[in-house]
């Protein structure tokens, strides 16, 4: 009998942790996804399951569970897989691996309980404050959560830091045994991503530990909202690449093989990941083009850096599509575009990832529009932005992860996938559902439909789409959301039923794509992680020192705060005039 060579046969102990991380991620996906349906139907006024007063509880849970919990649990799983597989050795000590996983779980539970307490009529008082966290996934001041929310976040982030330590330790151990070898590409991708994760999470850790947590505990009276916002976005842009890099990794090392060929260029892939390490952080201010209190010049620098950061994604589009074409031609594909037909469209792993890539091409365009300082004024805080990130994190990342799960779950459990046709239907449904939903969101944003509100219609104000009607746009969003929910249910069903399957001998080997141009063609300097990290830190210092200094100078380290100013949501004219008179000399 042929020997089976699945991941679980090579690394049984690691496979258990990875499996646990995947299931944590799927649980978050299930709850977060369902809440997505609830709010889409609510906003479009199709069916209302909740009171509008609970809208922000739902929105916070949806955002946190999907953008933070689902994504990061899944990626720590595949990063652990990538490091151990490409170094051909296990982690140094699986007890350490379990401990960071446990820390992330405890953090998630704390955050989850605090958010969901928002549904209770009388939330229990702990530490002198009611349990609550209706602060959305961006959680910057002036919104304030219960201290448990921040403590939970800290535990989760520290858990992810220790995961990074685990990957580095494994690599150091391997380097000791293989002193003269190049870092294998998947490990290289994990390490560069981890390095910028350390750089960017420094900002959010500072924001939580020095400002938000002491403020929610009542140790300090106020904070400077612009400072905590800026620290959040210092982290908040780079985090999107923390989600994206594992998807890119799969496109580089799996898609070429699934297509029947090899990766076009290992050196180019290394350059791409180095560029992400350098440029992911010093541009967070592109989320703050409309924030008063930051000078235009700093916003312009953020815009310039953002435009440079398009480069690694454009290189990725080229390299990955070239590799797919190479694969298709190996399989007999011909012609300028005819080769597309020779791709393995019946394979859900391939098709899911390819469709995710295709949607990301559109997402890249909406990202470029967001990034233009002047055009951003049109789309900021509208549903356009929501359309943008459902194509990026909601498809490029989420669909790639779901497609990857069809390959990974058999690898880490030794069980064959329950149903491949259902899986193929599932990835197609995601693509179709997202086409309806995100297209309508982008369109409605263009005529000013706001994001983050339960009642987007504003009584007495008529939206006028350039084409079609508001009702038609709402119908498309609702239809898209329903299709996405069906797709999600099929995904979870497949995962659950697979776990009831018996062990199978028909699991593909745990290998990934070879390369046409390998690491020997890449200049040695690309592997100099210390050098790139140092440059990345210098760039951050250049981009952030002056804006942060001026924010602190104008608004105070701990603010004048908003408390003293008695801001109400819609102040009457007299109050506005009075405030203007007070602040104007
Ligand atoms: Fe973004 C807002 C700019 C990428 C996520 N973004 C957001 C928010 C989220 C988010 C969550 O400059 C909202 C945050 C909030 O709550 O307020 N974004 C960009 C730019 C890029 C970009 C320039 N975003 C992402 C990614 C995300 C993400 C990736 C998550 C994973 N974004 C912005 C800006 C804002 C913003 C502003 C603020 C807006 C505002 O006003 O609030 C770029 O990185 C995009 C580059 C991408 C490309 C595409 C390359 C194409 C590829 C496809 C290859 C095809 C294949 C398949 C493999 C240039 C790689 C081929 C298939 C065949 C069949 C052949
Ligand atoms: Cu961004």
TrEMBL record:
<protein>
    <submittedName>
        <fullName>Cytochrome c oxidase subunit I</fullName>
    </submittedName>
</protein>
<feature type="transmembrane region" description="Helical">
    <location>
        <begin position="349"/>
        <end position="369"/>
    </location>
</feature>
<feature type="transmembrane region" description="Helical">
    <location>
        <begin position="297"/>
        <end position="321"/>
    </location>
</feature>
<feature type="transmembrane region" description="Helical">
    <location>
        <begin position="232"/>
        <end position="255"/>
    </location>
</feature>
<feature type="transmembrane region" description="Helical">
    <location>
        <begin position="389"/>
        <end position="409"/>
    </location>
</feature>
<feature type="transmembrane region" description="Helical">
    <location>
        <begin position="96"/>
        <end position="120"/>
    </location>
</feature>
<dbReference type="GO" id="GO:0004129">
    <property type="term" value="F:cytochrome-c oxidase activity"/>
</dbReference>
<dbReference type="GO" id="GO:0009060">
    <property type="term" value="P:aerobic respiration"/>
</dbReference>
<keyword id="KW-1133">Transmembrane helix</keyword>
<feature type="transmembrane region" description="Helical">
    <location>
        <begin position="267"/>
        <end position="285"/>
    </location>
</feature>
<dbReference type="InterPro" id="IPR036927">
    <property type="entry name" value="Cyt_c_oxase-like_su1_sf"/>
</dbReference>
<feature type="transmembrane region" description="Helical">
    <location>
        <begin position="531"/>
        <end position="552"/>
    </location>
</feature>
<dbReference type="GO" id="GO:0016020">
    <property type="term" value="C:membrane"/>
</dbReference>
<keyword id="KW-0472">Membrane</keyword>
<dbReference type="InterPro" id="IPR033943">
    <property type="entry name" value="Ba3-like_Oxidase_I"/>
</dbReference>
<dbReference type="GO" id="GO:0020037">
    <property type="term" value="F:heme binding"/>
</dbReference>
<dbReference type="InterPro" id="IPR023616">
    <property type="entry name" value="Cyt_c_oxase-like_su1_dom"/>
</dbReference>
<dbReference type="InterPro" id="IPR000883">
    <property type="entry name" value="Cyt_C_Oxase_1"/>
</dbReference>
<feature type="transmembrane region" description="Helical">
    <location>
        <begin position="20"/>
        <end position="41"/>
    </location>
</feature>
<keyword id="KW-0812">Transmembrane</keyword>
<feature type="transmembrane region" description="Helical">
    <location>
        <begin position="188"/>
        <end position="212"/>
    </location>
</feature>
<dbReference type="Pfam" id="PF00115">
    <property type="entry name" value="COX1"/>
</dbReference>
<feature type="transmembrane region" description="Helical">
    <location>
        <begin position="421"/>
        <end position="441"/>
    </location>
</feature>
<feature type="transmembrane region" description="Helical">
    <location>
        <begin position="61"/>
        <end position="84"/>
    </location>
</feature>
<feature type="transmembrane region" description="Helical">
    <location>
        <begin position="148"/>
        <end position="168"/>
    </location>
</feature>
<feature type="transmembrane region" description="Helical">
    <location>
        <begin position="473"/>
        <end position="493"/>
    </location>
</feature>
<feature type="domain" description="Cytochrome oxidase subunit I profile">
    <location>
        <begin position="25"/>
        <end position="504"/>
    </location>
</feature>
């Amino acid at each position: 009998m042929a020997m089976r060579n699945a991941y679980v046969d090579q690394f049984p102990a690691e496979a258990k942790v990875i499996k646990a991380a995947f299931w944590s991620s799927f649980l978050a996906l299930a709850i977060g996804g369902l809440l997505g349906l609830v709010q889409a139907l609510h906003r479009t006024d199709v069916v209302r399951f909740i009171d509008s007063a609970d809208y922000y509880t739902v929105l916070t849970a949806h955002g946190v569970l999907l953008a933070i919990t689902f994504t990061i649990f899944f990626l720590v799983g595949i990063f652990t897989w990538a490091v151990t597989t490409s170094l051909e050795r296990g982690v140094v000590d699986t007890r350490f691996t379990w401990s960071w996983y446990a820390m992330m779980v405890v953090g998630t539970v704390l955050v989850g309980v605090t958010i969901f307490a928002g549904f209770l009529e009388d939330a229990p008082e702990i530490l002198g404050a009611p349990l609550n966290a209706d602060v959305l996934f961006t959680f910057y001041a002036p919104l304030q959560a219960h201290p448990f929310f921040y403590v939970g976040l800290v535990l989760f982030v520290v858990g992810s830091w220790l995961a990074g330590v685990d990957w580095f330790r494994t690599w150091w151990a391997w380097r000791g045994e293989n002193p003269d070898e190049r870092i294998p590409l998947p490990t290289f991708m994990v390490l560069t991503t981890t390095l910028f994760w350390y750089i960017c999470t420094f900002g959010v850790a500072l924001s939580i530990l020095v400002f938000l947590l002491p403020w929610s505990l009542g140790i300090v009276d106020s904070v400077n909202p612009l400072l905590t916002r800026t620290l959040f976005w210092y982290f908040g842009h780079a985090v999107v690449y923390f989600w994206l890099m594992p998807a890119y990794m799969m496109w580089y090392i799996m898609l070429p093989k699934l297509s029947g060929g090899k990766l076009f260029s290992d050196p180019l892939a290394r350059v791409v990941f180095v560029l992400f390490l350098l440029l992911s952080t010093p541009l967070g201010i592109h989320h703050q083009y409309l924030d008063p209190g930051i000078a235009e010049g700093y916003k312009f620098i953020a815009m310039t850096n953002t435009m440079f950061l398009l480069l690694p994604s454009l290189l990725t589009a080229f390299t990955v599509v070239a590799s797919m074409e190479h694969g298709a031609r190996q399989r007999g594909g011909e012609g300028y575009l005819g080769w597309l037909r020779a791709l393995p469209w019946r394979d859900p792993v391939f098709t899911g990832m390819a469709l995710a890539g295709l949607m990301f091409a559109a997402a890249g365009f909406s990202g470029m529009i967001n990034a233009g300082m002047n055009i951003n004024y049109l789309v900021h805080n509208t549903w356009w932005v929501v359309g943008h990130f459902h194509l990026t994190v909601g498809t490029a990342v989420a669909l790639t992860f779901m497609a990857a799960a069809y390959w990974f779950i058999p690898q880490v459990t030794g069980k064959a996938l329950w149903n491949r046709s259902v899986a193929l239907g599932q990835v197609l449904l995601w693509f179709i559902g997202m086409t309806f939903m995100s297209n309508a969101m982008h369109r409605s944003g263009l005529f000013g439909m706001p994001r983050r509100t339960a009642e987007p219609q504003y009584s007495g104000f008529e939206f006028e789409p350039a084409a079609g009607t508001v009702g038609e746009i709402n119908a498309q969003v609702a239809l898209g959301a329903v299709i996405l929910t069906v797709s999600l249910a099929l995904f979870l069903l497949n995962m659950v039923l697979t776990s009831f399957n018996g062990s199978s001998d028909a699991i593909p080997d745990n290998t990934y794509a070879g390369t046409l141009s390998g690491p020997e063609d890449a200049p040695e300097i690309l592997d100099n992680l210390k050098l790139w990290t140092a440059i990345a830190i210098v760039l951050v210092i250049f981009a952030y020192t002056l804006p942060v200094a001026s924010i602190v100078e104008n608004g105070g380290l701990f603010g004048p705060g908003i408390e003293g100013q008695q801001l109400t949501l819609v102040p009457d004219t007299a109050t506005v005039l009075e405030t203007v008179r007070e602040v104007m000399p």
